[in-house]
Amino acid sequence: MSGRWRVVVSLDWRPSFLNQICIVGAILLAPLALADADEAEVIEFNDSFLRSSIDVSQFSSGNPVAPGIHRIDLYLNDQWKGRQDVNFSLASPQSSIAQPCYDLKTVKPVRHCLG
């Protein structure tokens, strides 16, 4: 029993309505994508800070922290307990390194763990 196969090839190619919309959209939006590349902001590198001297003496006594409110992560026994905003202030007028000022709000998340 031999079978006969019939192959139909249509040379009449007509894109569907959705294909036509996609093609028109791509043609219309292509210039917009190219316009962004032309309007790139020019950035000029200022190398004058490389020639100036930098005062690194503040790093000679540990890791200095500037006064102000800093967001810190609270850890107890290597377990993260939360994230808080803590006020850092100078311990003395002669000091250049700020120290944390803990309040009840800061200590509350870890207070029950301390016993």
UniProtKB/TrEMBL annotation:
SUPFAM superfamilies: FimD N-terminal domain-like. GO terms for biological process: pilus assembly. Keywords: Cell outer membrane, Membrane, Signal, Stress response, Transmembrane, Transport. Its main location: membrane. GO terms for cellular component: cell outer membrane. Signal peptide: none annotated. InterPro entries: Fimb_usher, PapC_N, PapC_N_sf. Pfam families: PapC_N. Gene3D superfamilies: 3.10.20.410. It is found in: Cell outer membrane. It comes from the Bacteria. It is a multi-pass membrane protein. Residues 44-108 form the PapC N-terminal domain. GO terms for molecular function: fimbrial usher porin activity. Belongs to the fimbrial export usher family. This is Heat shock protein E.
